[in-house]
Amino acid sequence: MFKNWLYIVFFCFCLGDVGAWYCRKSLFGIFAGIAAFWGLFSACACVCKHRCTEGWWQRFPFMDTKRNLCVLCSMLMLLSGYAAGNGRQQRQEQWQALQGKQIVLEGSVRAESLRKKGQGIAAILEAEKPLRGKVRIFIKTDHKNTDLIAHRLITHRIRMTGVLKEPVYLWNAGAYDGARADRIKGIGGKMTVTLSRLQMMESPVPFPLRFSVLSRNIREEALSRLHSKEGAILPGMILGGYQDVDPEEADVFRDNGIAHLLAVSGTHVAMLTMFLYVLLRPLGAYRLYAVQAVLALYALLCGLQPAVLRAVLMACVLLWGQKRKKQADSFRLLVLAAWLLLLVEPFWLLDISYQLSFVTTAGLLLACPKVTAYLPESWPDWLRSLSGVSLTAQLFSLPFSVFYFHRVSLIGLVSNLLLLPDLEAAALIFLSGLLALPFLPPVTLLLFPVAEGLLQGAVAAGNVLARLPFAALDVADWGWGGVLCYYAILFAFLDIGPFLLLSSRQRRNWVLAMAAMVCLFVGSRYMDSRQLTIHFMDVGQGDAALIRTPAGQNILIDTGGFTGGGDVARSVLLPYLRYLGVKRIDALCLSHGDHDHAGGAAGLAAKMPVGHIYLGAEAASAEDIKKLLDTIKGKAEVHYLGAGEQWQLGDCRMVVASASSRPSLFSGITNTNSASLILQFFCAGHSIVFPGDADGDTEERSLPFLQQADVLKVGHHGSETSSSPYFLHRLRPRYGIISVGAQNRYGHPSPGALVRLQKAGIETLRTDRLGAIKLVFKEDGPHWYSYRYQGNEF
């Protein structure tokens, strides 16, 4: 009975933890009230049972004392989970109360977070004063002393004075959720200081963070001895993190269904355990203790990541059980390990690493033998075992791949069979080289090239597999309903858990019913109400908007672009489009060639089919446009637009209100904003105007071609030189969308532009405050939704 109730109370703890994340204080009274009521009821039931030996109430199910105590325990666990998560959230709120104020921070830098950038050093500070928590810091330095300062930052506690600010996030459907990730990590804000505001303290960093310094030193020493770009994968496989891995190579691993190998996984910990078990054999009776000690140190070196802690905890307990010749219940052990980690960090429950690690391991423990039984018996035993493990892991992790990446590998089984042995061999050889590095440095000259060669071969083979037309599939968001139905089908089909109580016919009917529900949830993404919808993506200080027409056309106007590094196509455009279920861009219109409007065009066209590209005559000279044209040679039709032209894009008509007249690559125009296209789209009885970065003169020239509009994408991010009164009076839109980056250095949107918009009676919607904005044109006019505050509407 304890075994089953262990799972129930753990579930209740997780439920309370999730309640603290989403609902906060409103649930505390409810949880406490339920627990108090059930405690009182249990006490009354216990008294009645002992005083009254006969009567119908003795047969009443709730008179069972043990059951009542278990239910009470579950209620208390629900309250405990809520209290743990709420305590974590209260610390976050204390940091938020300090934002906007000048404070003094004291603490130590996490070595693995330190990054050298063009104007200084970025890192995460483990703050001790004024509060305990984490803060993102940026220290402005010159190029001469960056290395010295970086070394001192990770070896000394520091004190810094500055204004604590709220971190800037991009809020987009399907894309990386920086706000969520920082909340899980406990990031309380950000601070930027100069060297004059930084003080190195004499006291050393805390003991656990010294392992972080050691790990960084080992990584840097290893990277200095590796000579290919693929070599950066090896330190990540052994020490965790893939910050040095090329994004294209990371995509290859994801498309092959082996992305878990880019970080420390349970497979690597198991391999290390076996390696140590053999290596430390001379220690005899002390071997198991030595292995456990080394595994604990290894977890510290890897930064105490959830997946590593889970694998190390289970390995240590299993070794302890072997020492005492006791058989451990692996699944119960997994639940206890998961619970222990949540007691340390309650919000790890929402972390992708924690989720994938425990869900995949649970799937292997519960279903691997049953999945293997479906494989052909004619296969060799080793092939059936490897295939069963790989297939089970993919089946149980599939909803997470859809939820976080909206992309599913279809060749994962083949890739694991072909590439996994090579990659694990490379990791083992590289690990041997790392162990030999302090004692026999020349040995690394032999081992590292071998590991690097094996890795390069695996990456090359993965590239070939990833290029296959059926290698990976983009999948739209399922929603929670689709995920629950999927797991219900999986559990019923494999006869797991409560489905053991059902007959074969009942399970078959259940599978059919749930399959129909999955089709309904997934199909709703592709078969929506076919209303005209516009998505203004949050790309920071840039523009990117997607028009989805009633006929199913997808028209993308501008693609944004990050300054100072970062791929907007990989981080925003592709995840957003995949989330919506977009498979193809029918028309790509670029207002002009500035990086904040065209920076993501080439990256998008490389990963998603584009039908037609529409450019201004002057845009061809821009670097980002040249990259785009090189990428789509022979794959898409390119059209150069002129003022007054009209184009029919499916069920949508595009009017070119302004465009540069000379298609020369050597134009004398230096102000690219004055050459910006001004486009007006007419669709389903509605109209939208996109002026790019056009200035006031360009807007004035466009007036003869423009008509009244429902929505205006405000020009040049709301700058003072755009959105003239005459322009606004001609259009008279209901909404003005300002695509602008939070805390941008240009001061956009300008106060003057905001005043002109307000005087014209235009309601302004800003991406820096609302995140991505969705406009749906219904019978009574356009309705808008903010992803930051109404994400469920996306």
Break the fold down into its secondary structure elements and pairings.
Layout: H1 2-22, H2 28-51, H3 65-98, E1 102-109, E2 115-117, E3 120-129, E4 133-140, H4 146-155, E5 158-163, H5 178-185, E6 187-194, E7 198-200, H6 207-225, H7 233-239, H8 247-255, H9 266-279, H10 287-301, H11 306-323, H12 330-344, H13 352-373, H14 381-405, E8 407-409, H15 412-436, H16 441-466, E9 472-474, H17 479-494, H18 504-526, E10 533-536, E11 544-548, E12 554-559, H19 568-580, E13 585-590, H20 595-598, H21 601-607, E14 610-616, H22 623-631, E15 637-641, E16 646-649, E17 652-658, E18 678-683, E19 686-690, H23 696-702, E20 711-713, H24 725-731, E21 735-738, H25 751-759, E22 763-766, H26 767-770, E23 773-778, E24 781-786
Parallel strand pairs: 4-6, 12-13, 13-14, 14-15, 19-20, 20-21, 21-22
Antiparallel strand pairs: 1-3, 1-5, 2-3, 3-4, 5-7, 8-9, 10-11, 10-23, 11-12, 16-17, 17-18, 18-19, 23-24
Helix pairs in contact: 1-3, 1-12, 2-3, 7-15, 8-16, 9-10, 9-11, 10-11, 11-12, 12-13, 13-14, 14-15, 14-17, 15-16, 17-18, 19-21, 21-22
Number of DSSP E strands: 24
Class from helix and strand fractions: alpha/beta
pLDDT averaged residue by residue: 85
Rg is 30 Å
Give the strand order of the largest sheet, numbering strands 1, 2, ... along the chain: 15-14-13-12-11-10-23-24
Distance between the termini: 43 Å
Summed up, the helix count is: 26
Major β-sheet profile: 8 strands, mixed
Q: Helical amount among residues, as a percent range?
A: 40-55%
- Strand composition percent: 15-25%
